[in-house]
Amino acid sequence: MEGWRQGWRRSGTNAAICAYWALGVRQGSCLRTSLAAVLFPSLLNSLMMLVIGHGDHFMCGLFGLSNRHRSAALKGHHRDRKPQEKAEERAHDCDIVPQIKRMHQGTASWRFRRDEAKAASLAASDLGLVSIVTTVGLYRYSACQQREGVMPKITILPKTNLQEDCWHSMLISLLRGLAALMVAAAHLRALVYPGFGTVVKPPLLFQGLAFSTGFAYLAVIVFFVLSGWLVGGSFLNKLDSDRAFQNYAIDRISRLWVVLVPTFLVVLLVGAAVGVLDGARVSFSTSEPYSVSAFFGNMIGLQTIIVPPFGGNFPLWSLANETWYYVLFPLMVLVFRSRTIATRAAALLAIGAIIHFVHSAILLYFSIWLLGAAFSRIKIEAGPALRWVLLLLFVGSAVLIRMKGKTDVTPDGYPQYLIFSLIFVLFLSSMQFKRRPTQILDRLDSIGQFFANFSFTLYVLHVPLIAVMAHVLLSMSGVAQLSPYSLSHYVLYAAMYLVLVVGAYAFYLPFESNTPRVRQWLKTQFLARVGTVQP
After folding, report:
1. I need a surface site. Which of 78, 353, 376, 413 has the fewest CB within 10 A?
2. Would you call 186 helix, strand, or coil by DSSP?
3. Residue 279 burial (10 A CB sphere; 0-12, 13-18, 19+)
């Protein structure tokens, strides 16, 4: 285990150094200095503390503990270490923190509180070289700050900011809707057009269509990050409320099943209509997509693990990831927050069983989900220049991955998606401030909320709808595939896409839109609350 930890530390150190110098830290390059020296090393530091389970100060910040509890965690951290390691930490405390203070003498303000300086020194003892890089970067950036008066301020929030009148909330709504629209457009193009590689001299219009609809996997990564931000952040906000874990379980189950149950019934009807389902035979096989086992297995996140996606609805693979992330996260919280040793031990055993049960890709991409949960508590106060740089990096990394990167969510593609996610959460954290209530922004926010509201329905329903439209197209016109060389077929593609979106919205109205009501009823029935039940 110690060798594994050392490997993570060395890889984190190397990654920090590469990011530091790749961003061009040199004299006079203030913006790049701030990104490399302040954001990347500290981010890698905190992430590795989370991964190796060796950073109580990070978890205290993540779960919003008070300063008193944070100090207690720091003392416990020192108490559990060997005498030699304690001496090394004291040496770091003596060397690093005063140096940082001396470097910042004469600047506009001193950003570190005493407990944050202690946490920084603890991180330095685990990742010494990262702290050196950070220290040098802070020193170099302080000169830039004196000349330009711009310095990002990173704040750990006591609660996740879920206010709808902030910039990041509007961006989250827009990205949720856009991600679902992107996935639907990509799958429609893949199912009704020939593969791009098989088209001889593809027309410019088809090249544009293929490129613009090729961000489906990145859209799924966006879903993972936003799910961690919204679901994880909301759960952390409610930890101290009555029956937080029971309410969380009902919220997650109702969120999934209110949409999945009617969608699976539609899948059965579509299978019977297109002739791929034999209604006279009932199967319990775990290998058949229309079996009873597949139906209930997809309800509890067993697709891609034991059963196939139900009815050939292949986008359901990501719901297996989401389901297990919903389970793993509260178990992690129990490990750190439970008051009894028995509960912590049970949570650890459950986590171990899940790790043994699910495949490696689900576990690997859980770190991306955790990024969203962690950064929902981090606010980066920066100037517009830095926010624009982060936005350009976010868009640029997406285009670069689309052109040169992996095109599926596998362990091989994890590094590129991790970098993309890091840039994404940094950008979102820098946008945590209130926006001005202008007519254009209010209209944009309304559009984002409109599409975000039925994004889940669109995600799980679009493949069955494509199957129906493809069957109707083949039956009426004998066209099995659209032609990249026919302009009229592009119009037909646009019409089919419009049917997908309108059909998903019509399906959303009786089902997903009533999720809060179903959730309220379930809490009333199963929690037996007295008085008003909080949704």
Report:
1. 353
2. helix
3. exposed
Question: What is the distance between the alpha carbons of residues 342 and 344, in angstroms, rounded to a whole number?
Answer: 5
- Give the position of tokens 């996935």: 183
Give which of 45, 57, 24 is closest to 137, Cα–Cα.
24
- Cβ within 8 Å of residue 312, ≥6 positions away: 276, 289, 463, 467
Question: Which residues touch 151 (CB under 8 Å, ≥6 apart)?
Answer: 34, 107, 108, 111, 141, 145
| pLDDT score recorded for residue 215 | 95
- Could you tell me the maximum CA-CA distance found in the chain, to the nearest angstrom? 82
Q: What distance in Å separates the CA atoms of residue 337 and residue 487, rounded to the nearest whole number?
A: 60
The DSSP string of 317-354 is HHHHHHHHHHHHHHHHHHHHH-SSHHHHHHHHHHHHHH
In tens, the pLDDT along 318-354 reads 999 999 999 999 999 999 998 899 999 999 999 999 9
Q: Is the pLDDT of residue 427 over 50?
A: yes
CA distances from 361 to 13, 231, 324, 409 (A): 24, 21, 12, 8
Cα angle at 504 between 289 and 301, to 5 degrees? 35
- Amino acid identity of residue 391, one-letter, is L
How does the average pLDDT of the chain come out, rounded? 79
- Asked whether the CA dihedral 187, 192, 197, 199 is positive or negative, the reply is negative
Distances (CA, A) of 487 to 203, 427, 483: 10, 39, 9
The whole-angstrom distance between residue 4's C-alpha and the CA centroid of its chain comes to 25
Beta-carbon contacts of 214 under 8 Å, excluding residues fewer than 6 positions away, are 186, 402, 407
Q: Is the pLDDT of residue 56 over 90?
A: no
Q: Of 128-142, 297-311, 469-483, which range is least confident?
A: 128-142
How high is the pLDDT of residue 210?
95
CA angle 387, 213, 494 (to 5 degrees): 120
Phi, psi (rounded to 5 degrees) for 216: -65, -45
Q: Is residue 218 within a helix (H) or strand (E), and if so which, with residue range?
A: helix 216-227
Number of residues in the chain: 535
Residue 152 contacts residue 381 (beta carbons within 8 Å) = yes
State the virtual CA torsion across 132, 54, 19, 395 in degrees, nearest 10: -140
pLDDT digits (tens, 9 = 90+) for 171-222: 999 999 999 999 999 999 999 999 998 999 999 999 999 999 999 999 999 9
- What integer pLDDT is reported at residue 150 of this predicted model? 56
Q: Is residue 79 a contact partner of residue 111, using CB atoms and an 8 Å limit?
A: no
Residue 487: Cβ-neighbour burial (10 angstroms; 0-12, 13-18, 19+): exposed
Rounded distance, CA 71 to CA 74, Å? 5
SS3 content of the chain, % helix, strand, coil (to 5): 75, 0, 25
C-alpha 398/C-alpha 160 separation (Å) is: 26
For residues 119 and 67, what is the distance between their CA atoms, to the nearest angstrom?
12
Count of CB atoms situated within 10 Å of the CB of 471 = 15
- Distance (Å, whole) CA 529 – CA 515: 19
